[in-house]
Amino acid sequence: MTRFALTLEYDGAPFAGLQRQANAPSVQEAVEDAVFAVTGQHATLHAAGRTDAGVHALAMRAHVDVETAIAPFRMMEALNAHLRPRPVAVTACAAVGDQWHARFSCTGRAYEYRILNRRAPPTLDAGRVWGIGRPLDADAMDRAAQALVGKHDFTTFRSVQCQAASPVKTLDRITVHRAGERVLVETAARSFLHHQVRSMVGCLALVGMGRWEESRVADALAARDRQQLGLNAPPHGLYFVHAAYPPEDRF
Amino acid sequence: MTRFALTLEYDGAPFAGLQRQANAPSVQEAVEDAVFAVTGQHATLHAAGRTDAGVHALAMRAHVDVETAIAPFRMMEALNAHLRPRPVAVTACAAVGDQWHARFSCTGRAYEYRILNRRAPPTLDAGRVWGIGRPLDADAMDRAAQALVGKHDFTTFRSVQCQAASPVKTLDRITVHRAGERVLVETAARSFLHHQVRSMVGCLALVGMGRWEESRVADALAARDRQQLGLNAPPHGLYFVHAAYPPEDRF
After folding, report:
1. Which of A77, A87, A121 sits opposite B123 (nearest CB)?
2. What is the pLDDT confidence band of residue B241, given thresholds at 50, 70 and 90?
3. How far are the Cα atoms of A9, A34, A78, B7 from residue A83, in angstroms, in the given order?
4. How many domains does chain A have?
5. Are residues A85 and A175 in the same domain?
6. Is B53 on the interface with A (CB under 8 A)?
7. Residues B31 and B128 in one domain
8. pLDDT 10s digits, B131-151
9. Is B111 among the annotated ligand-binding positions?
10. Residue B230: which pLDDT band, with cuts at 50, 70 and 90?
11. Does any domain span residue A138?
12. Interface test with B, best of A82, A93, A119 (most B CBs within 10 A)
């Protein structure tokens, strides 16, 4: 048995999410179908994180176990040949020991949220950014965001469908900065609740527009009440950008 | 009569080009239809350059003449409302004097060509970059490209459909550099022949792959023979990025 660690890049638009669904296309189904086409084996894709419908990934980490003599580079090439023309690609592939698990060995996840802040709607970036016409104060968003850093009960920023056992998470980092017409939110944690990033970004956008006082983000967090959520940002601005592993599990 | 100078951004994918066509959607048709919807007038869109089917623009400059009391900002907002959901947007709009002509006042055009140089095919960038799997030597491409700078007969790099009176053009600048997985070609001239940028990029890609000696670009240019063209790069990696106007025509 060979465990192949895969790095996946995908456009979330045509998918109902990363995870396999009964009646809708998923990234998992696309990759598992490609693995079957290449190896003749039904393998399960294990991924570092679960992304929702419409959410993108620049470098999702995942693994599959298959009985094969194919070298990792040929495996990557063959998977990409079968994945075309769907917008999912394997950008790196390595054979790893079976102590390495894409999900359970992962010690940190990082996301980026991209806002296009201008009057004109997105064209080349349509479906890949959240277009906000009203001018955003990125500095105010960044200041307000710092109240979210640390260990908190994130019930306010958690989807009602969230299946996590506890709403308590530790947010390691969240920053907001402007790059020309773009406002970028970057955040990292060991793990996130369902919709947590989109919920945080939605409230920060209200701060950026001046509709919320900066301090209201801290108040919403302290309330531990989903009704205090101002706005859930749309999925198509969200990118899974990095999964971290401990040094002994790097390859 | 008010002359509105427009800055246009568009995704070239769904269009048969900038210029109006009898039986296919064009950027010109989309914008002229929007102008008619807003003002009730049939105006002709004059643009700084003509882009082919599939070619994108980050900042095409154009103008329309209409009898209207609408202020430029409202004009931009109204045009964008009518352009949706097509991937064309007016990113800037100003009222200018009728001595300013988007095409005839324009003294320089700049294009960027984007190559994604990695084994995996493009996903999020599909239709927006030329994916080349074989490693490119961007430094060799840059060196070879310098033979094209200056006043030359560009017959080798000219489409057989090109309607320009002369094949002689002066290329002001062409540079190639790598930015991570991307190889970017930037070029500027007063004007270009039909397919000139794509033809130059195609030959430079052959140099980058090691299939052409660096000196062969200069040889192909000197031959003034379309049969010497190595490769025409695909349209979807090409972006019109800038139109220059003399200081007295800026606004």
Report:
1. A87
2. very high
3. 12, 6, 9, 38
4. 2
5. no
6. no
7. no
8. 999 999 999 999 999 999 999
9. yes
10. confident
11. yes
12. A119
Burial class, B53, CB count within 10 angstroms (exposed 0-12 / middle 13-18 / buried 19+): middle
Q: What is the pLDDT of residue B163?
A: 86
List chain A residues with CB under 8 Å of B118: 91
Nearby residues of A165 by Cβ (< 8 Å), 6 or more positions away? none
The pLDDT of residue A173 is above 80? yes
The interface residues of chain B toward chain A in range 189-228, judged by CB-CB distance below 8 A, are none
Cα–Cα distances (Å) from A164 to A214, B153, B174, in that order, read 28, 68, 54
Domain residues for A134? Answer: 108-243
Determine the 3-state secondary structure of A118 from DSSP. coil
Question: pLDDT tens digits, residue range A71-82?
Answer: 999 999 999 999
Q: Assess if residue B250 is contained within a domain.
A: no
The complex's ipTM?
0.92
CATH number for the domain that contains residue B193: 3.30.70.660
Spatial distance between the Cα atoms of A204 and A191, rounded to a whole number of angstroms: 20
